[in-house]
From TrEMBL:
Lineage: Eukaryota, Fungi, Dikarya, Basidiomycota, Agaricomycotina
Organism: Rhodocollybia butyracea
Annotated protein name in UniProt: Alpha-galactosidase
Domain Alpha galactosidase C-terminal: 328-400
Domain of life of the source: Eukaryota
InterPro entries the record matches: Aldolase_TIM, GH, Glyco_hydro_27, Glyco_hydro_b, Melibiase_C
Biological processes annotated in GO: carbohydrate metabolic process
Reactions catalysed: Hydrolysis of terminal, non-reducing alpha-D-galactose residues in alpha-D-galactosides, including galactose oligosaccharides, galactomannans and galactolipids
């Protein structure tokens, strides 16, 4: 007989449910939506591509889709390489022969808003490895904001190339604070008196979600670029980086997961669907970034799905949060919606088409009435679980109402640094603050063994709740980008791989309540749980 999965042992983590109030400029009350050329054209977009894509935003029905803030943005490459004789911003006359004011007027004439792009550095980003010399706005914030406003700008995406020096192209670990660059431009935009949505694009460096970013920008990029070229590995890296900051998104200030890759090569259609639905439910800005003049019917169907768009534009403005990871199998994320219903997103993580059982207890429910958001199918009442077919890296997105909540599980916590546990091979305790001591250097030879763990009256399979710290941020795609793996073994039985995402960008922020089921417990209090990883560090462990 298996023990009830809710009677269990637990490793404790803390969850932050801090919510920002957003930049107080009345904009981006719901996440902005629009079109940006970068993922399709890099820094080489010309006037005719801007014009034809602006026309397509209208003719394909995207503008009419209830997007609150449809805009057409320019991106890198639109700028000149030298200021004019009075220090004013200039445009690239080869790329934009009719001039920026005329392009802005054209976009406005279609009923679209116009988005500018600049950079909080000595030069802007370019596509030729940092030798393009496109103008940046560092030190010219007030003048440039005034110029963009006078040209009719409604939006500014603000990048971060050459922010340290005129020779340091992209620096993910800058020796200076980046935040003042963004505060300066935010203030300069406010001073223009024109409503200009401010989109901070500094790739998640120095954790902008935790700046008083809420008061600085309407959205902030949380991670390095999704591409081009896009890949599932990029999506996984960004998803893991979102885990600790979902609570910081709210009306006026959003976590920006990056421009969309729907319609571009590099992702399967199932992956593109998952990408769009996840971005929507995480309340990321939805910025189409493909050539709309050649988009396929299939990709357009993904981008125009009204049910998915409604998740993004839901007036409550709460992101989905990480609920459960079945390592290399499936992820479960969920969050509340304005009408009292809940959205749940289940992602196939093993790259295999198969059926997956979604356990409603993973989102705190025993039953609910469900609609499949992507297909629109009404699924009736689901009780305890729902099994359905998934494509490889596909997803199930459910809108759940008539929620019947499950009883909260209770856990007994064991401190990693507690007496009786066995630290070996270099594993050692680290004091985080007055109340928290963790065990670090576990893995790569180090091991942590919890002893005297209570298996209850009948042993078997128990649910554990782990609290850990993992601030191992990476901008690149490793095996486990922005996550760390622990192998967990009960009573020296088979090791179970457990993959834990980031808990924050510094080593003093806990993730609380990572759930994992382990088998092999004996009745009584003589069980052990060994945590190890022969090929890399596990997270720092606080308790379980
Ligand atoms: C320089 O650029 C600014 C901003 O566009 C403009 O207001 C000013 O008239 C330009 N000055 C000259 C001399 O072209
Ligand atoms: C210790 O750190 C945890 C996790 O960041 C935090 O929740 C807690 O408030 C801190 N306690 C003290 C006393 O600083």
């Amino acid at each position: 007989m298996r023990k009830s999965p809710w009677a269990g042992v637990s490793l404790v983590f803390f969850t932050f449910v801090q919510s920002s109030l957003g930049l107080n400029n009345g904009l981006a009350v719901t996440p902005q939506m629009g079109w940006n050329p970068y993922n399709a054209f890099s820094c080489t977009t010309g006037q005719s591509q801007y014009e034809s894509n602006a026309n397509a935003v209208v003719s394909l029905g995207l503008k009419a889709l209830g997007y609150d803030y449809v805009n057409l943005q320019v991106d890198c490459g639109w700028q000149g390489t030298a200021r004019n004789s009075s220090g004013g911003f200039t445009w690239n006359t080869e790329a934009i022969p009719d001039g920026i004011p005329a392009l802005v007027e054209f976009v406005h004439s279609l009923g679209l808003k116009f988005g500018f792009y600049s950079d909080g550095g000595f030069f802007a980003c370019d596509s030729v490895g940092g030798t393009g010399g496109f103008l940046g706005s560092l030190g010219f914030e007030i003048e440039d904001a005034a110029t963009f406003a006078s040209w009719g700008g409604d939006y500014l995406k603000y990048d971060n190339c050459f922010s340290v020096s005129s020779t340091d192209f992209v620096d993910f670990n800058p020796p200076i604070e980046i935040e003042p660059h963004y505060i300066a431009m935010s203030n300069a935009l406010a001073a223009t008196g024109r409503p200009i949505l401010f989109s901070a694009c500094e790739w998640g460096v120095q954790d902008p979600a935790r700046w008083p970013a809420s008061a600085i920008a309407n959205s902030w990029r949380i991670a390095n670029d999704i591409g081009p070229p896009p890949s599932w590995a990029n999506l996984f890296r960004i998803i893991n980086q979102l885990v600790p900051i979902t609570g910081f998104a709210g009306p006026g200030g959003w976590n920006d997961l990056d421009l969309l890759e729907v319609g571009n090569d590099g992702l399967t259609m199932a992956e593109q669907q998952t990408h769009f639905a996840f971005w929507a439910a995480a309340k990321s800005p939805l910025l189409i970034s493909t050539d709309l003049t050649t988009i396929s019917e299939e990709a357009l169907a993904i981008l125009t799905n009204k049910g998915v768009i409604a998740l993004n534009q839901d007036p409550l403005g709460r992101s989905i949060a990480f609920k459960r990871r079945y390592t290399n199998d499936h992820d479960v994320w969920a969050g509340p919606l304005a009408d009292g219903s809940m959205v749940a997103v289940v992602i196939e993580m093993d790259d295999v088409a198969r059926s997956i059982t979604f356990d409603l207890s993973d989102v705190g429910l025993t039953s609910a009435t469900a609609t499949n958001v992507i297909t629109g199918a009404k699924l009736g009442t689901l009780t305890n679980s729902y099994t359905s077919a998934f494509e490889a890296h596909g997803s199930l997105v459910l809108r759940l109402s008539n929620l019947v909540t499950a009883p909260e599980p209770t856990f007994t916590f064991y401190d990693a640094a507690g007496e009786g546990n066995i630290l070996a091979g270099g594993a050692s305790t680290r004091i985080v603050n007055d109340t928290i001591t963790v065990v670090g250097f576990v893995g790569d030879g180090g091991t942590l063994e919890f002893t005297d763990v209570n298996g209850g009256d009948s042993g078997g399979t128990l649910l554990l709740s782990l609290d850990y710290i993992n601030a191992d941020v990476t901008e690149s795609n490793t095996d486990c980008s922005n996550c760390r793996v622990a192998l967990m073994s009960v009573n020296n039985g088979p090791a179970v791989e457990v993959q834990m995402p980031l808990s924050g960008q510094s080593w003093d922020i806990l993730f609380s309540g990572y759930l994992v089921s382990l088998s092999g417990f004996k009745p009584g209090t003589t069980n052990t749980i060994l945590i190890s990883n022969p090929s890399g560090f596990t997270p720092d462990c606080y308790r379980h």
